[in-house]
Design brief:
With 714 residues, the protein is an alpha/beta fold. The strands form three sheets. A seven-stranded mixed sheet has the order 3-2-1-4-8-6-11, sandwiched between helices. A three-stranded mixed sheet has the order 5-12-7. The chain has a two-stranded antiparallel sheet with strand order 9-10. The protein is globular and about 95 Å long.
Length: 714
């Protein structure tokens, strides 16, 4: 397939270039000013030559802060003026009047997730599309990579119940891969190989994401109007935060995200990025051009690409297609980790994936602006260890100075126009750095002051201002712990420790004191030792580091407190940390939460059977047994050794019960049609004396539940 023809005019190209020159020029001048001031301060202070080691650390950290500040500043200017004419949702179409020529697949890749959640989202989405009268344009695919036997069987049952309830046979499809090769990217690639040719576009969801039918139809229309667009990414709004940390993330993302998105779109334009979900993709070029490379070496930093989305965006752009961010589209949502430990677990996975991008950023054949995206992603995790090193070096230099018996002899500034004392210059450097962090917090308040209707969706202007203050305090206390988490992740990867891609926790059950202490005892120890050392060296050093030290000292209680719901309930009751989704919930969000709550109230197995309830249902229940075998491809030509091994596993399962088998052994049996049918026959035919007590309990429980269901139906 040839790349699309160039459809943008020379004026448009000049506009994009001028935007990038303006943005990166502002960033470079701001960074240069800060770095020069700090360099001049180091020169004027004199003393130990090792102080210059702080300069490169400061330069990288300050440059990253300046980059984020420029996004907020340019985004604020754009939104203050009104709509951005260079956002794809407001640009003139390349093909006026064009209609979608093909159908769209809605993909839900899942991995050991609670099916109640994503099937509730699927049902909500299906009914929403049905109400538009355009359901025939879409098919829904649940693409399972689950390795938990219970989840596997639950997925099949929820698929059946959902399709029957919606009368959606031939509209909602379920597929379980035998081997979880290349994780989510391999899952999507498998769909593209099998069914991709039947669809023009696909929209990828996460198990916790949701989109309205109106937004989906708008994305499909935009792809038809802009045939040069390969990927169109939306900016999901966080929702359903129940814990304090969840509400905190939800509020910060909603209030500041639109501004940051406008600033990001200002410079990236058609050179946008892909975030892995809540985006629409043109399938044909994705199949042809977006095959992921194998990286040099082995994991954690080599081998298969874990964070596929950045790389796929780069490959799509290299092929000549554009990638846009529709930052102003509403009706797109995702959930967030409910606790600090869950947040850190997700960051651990993402840190390995992002650090792998160093190979592609440095040596890959990808466009320049995609290298910028990758570098920004890498620095998001390297900034933690760099910040730690900066603080450690500053403490060491302070100790060396205090024990040197030297007198401070300052020199004049080498910068023209700087006639202040070194102490005042240090305050200026510190103040500018804080300004890059805190001034962007004022931008949304200025926008809300102009729009009282929008301000009411955050509880009013005053409550929004108070919420920002709460956000600043809490994130200031949480940031030092995240710094140590990121530092430990990077160090572990450098020593070859790879990360397993586990299921993200989403239920917000709360972090216990013992779990928090086990995970963050190192943070507490670092805080205690560093606080003693800092104040012993100099009270000035101790007070200067006090925000960081306090975050470490309070690491455990902050982790426990922010994972609970009571503080979140109190704050929202008093109008704090509110978002538009709290004040005026969209119909699709309300419907999803109500449906999820109703489905979650279904009967649950007794504790003795809960661990292996999926396998129990497949073996004992004739209905579930037949359903499960429909999804498995028979393998009639198995080797004799394989056949004997499966027979031995079946015999052991019946004689000793499901708890005696490993997860891998259960999966082997569940993947074999002959074994499943034979087990179902034997468990009902064999005398109870030849079965383990576990099967006796399972059969009795199944009979009781069957009678209960019949009674309910009558």
């Amino acid at each position: 397939m040839s790349s699309p023809s160039e459809s943008t005019s020379s004026n448009t190209l000049r506009d994009g270039l001028s935007r990038r020159v303006t943005f990166f020029g502002t960033w470079a001048l701001l960074t240069l000013a800060g770095v020069l001031l700090f360099w001049d301060l180091l020169v004027r202070m004199g003393g130990i030559e090792a102080r210059y080691l702080m300069l490169p650390l400061f330069a990288v950290l300050f440059a990253q802060l300046a980059f984020g500040f420029c996004h907020a500043a340019f985004g604020f200017i754009i939104l203050w003026r009104g709509q951005d004419p260079r956002c794809i949702t407001h640009m003139p179409p390349e093909a006026p009047g064009a209609k979608p020529s093909g159908r769209t697949a809605l993909l839900f890749p899942v991995y050991n997730e609670d099916p109640v959640r994503y099937f509730a989202a699927i049902e909500t989405l299906y009914r929403d599309l049905e109400g538009t009268g355009q359901l025939e344009q879409f098919d829904i695919f649940v693409l399972s990579d689950s390795t938990d036997p219970n989840r596997w069987v639950e997925e099949e049952m929820h698929w059946l119940v959902t399709t029957e309830r919606l009368d959606a046979q031939g509209r909602i499809f379920y597929r379980k891969r035998r081997k979880n090769i290349n994780q989510k990217s391999g899952n999507i690639a498998d769909f593209c190989r099998r069914w991709g040719k039947n669809y023009e576009t696909m929209i990828c969801f996460d198990a916790d994401s949701l989109m309205s039918a109106e937004t989906i139809l708008r994305l499909v229309a935009l792809m038809a109007e802009h045939p040069s667009c390969g990927i169109l990414q939306t900016m999901p709004r966080l929702f359903n935060g129940r814990t304090l940390l969840g509400h905190l993330q939800q509020f910060a993302s909603r209030l500041h995200g639109g501004i940051a998105g406008a600033g990001l779109n200002y410079w990236q334009q058609d050179a946008g990025n892909y975030w892995g979900h809540n985006a629409i993709i043109r399938i044909a070029p994705f199949i042809e051009y977006c095959t992921l490379p194998d990286l040099p070496g082995v994991q954690p930093l080599g081998g298969r690409v874990m964070s596929h989305d950045f790389v796929e965006a780069a490959l799509m752009r290299r092929a000549g297609y554009s990638v846009w961010l529709a930052y102003d589209l509403e009706g797109t949502y995702e959930e967030m980790p409910p606790s600090l430990l869950d947040f850190a677990a997700r960051d651990r996975r993402w840190s390995q994936g992002n650090l792998q991008h160093l190979w592609i950023m440095l040596f890959g054949d990808v466009p320049l602006l995609n290298r910028v995206h990758m570098l920004n992603g890498v620095l998001a995790y390297l900034s933690g260890p760099l910040w730690f090193c900066f603080l450690a070096l500053g403490t060491i230099l302070a100790y060396a100075w205090e024990n040197s018996s030297l007198t401070l002899l300052t020199e004049g500034s080498a910068l023209p126009g700087v006639s202040i004392s070194p102490e005042a210059q240090g305050v200026w450097v510190f103040g500018i750095t804080l300004g890059l962090i805190f001034v962007p917090k004022l931008f949304p308040l200025l926008l809300l002051a102009r729009n009282s209707r929008q301000a009411r969706l955050y509880g009013g202007w005053f409550k929004a201002a108070c919420s920002i203050l709460v956000e600043l305090i809490l994130f200031t206390l949480l940031a030092p712990s995240l710094m140590l988490f990121h530092t430990s992740f990077v160090v572990a990867m450098l020593f070859g420790k790879k990360v397993t891609w586990d299921t993200q926790s989403r239920d917000g059950g709360g972090t216990g004191w013992l779990d928090a202490l086990r995970a963050q005892r190192g943070h507490l120890l670092v805080g205690v030792l560093w606080a003693v050392l800092a104040f012993c060296i100099s009270s000035q050093l101790g007070w200067w580091m006090s925000p960081v030290l306090l975050g470490w000292l309070l690491a455990v209680p902050m982790s426990v407190w922010t994972s609970g719901t009571s503080a979140a309930v109190w704050l929202t009751r008093h109008g704090l940390l509110l978002t538009p989704e709290d004040v005026n919930p969209p119909a699709e969000v309300s419907t999803l939460l109500r449906r999820e709550e109703n489905d979650a109230s279904a009967l649950r197995p007794i504790p003795e059977l809960e661990t292996d309830y999926g396998l129990l249902r497949v073996v004992v229940d004739p209905y579930v047994n037949s359903l499960h075998t429909l999804f498995i491809h028979p393998r009639p030509n198995k080797a004799e050794e394989t056949r004997s091994s499966l027979t031995a596993l079946s015999t052991r399962l019946l004689a000793e019960g499901a708890p005696s088998l490993s997860r891998e052994e259960k999966l082997r049996l569940l993947s074999d049609v002959e074994s499943i049918r034979r087990l179902h026959r034997d468990v009902w035919v064999l005398p109870r004396s030849e079965l383990s007590n576990w099967w006796g309990l399972a059969i009795d429980r199944f009979n009781r539940e069957s009678l209960y269901r019949v009674a309910l139906r009558d």
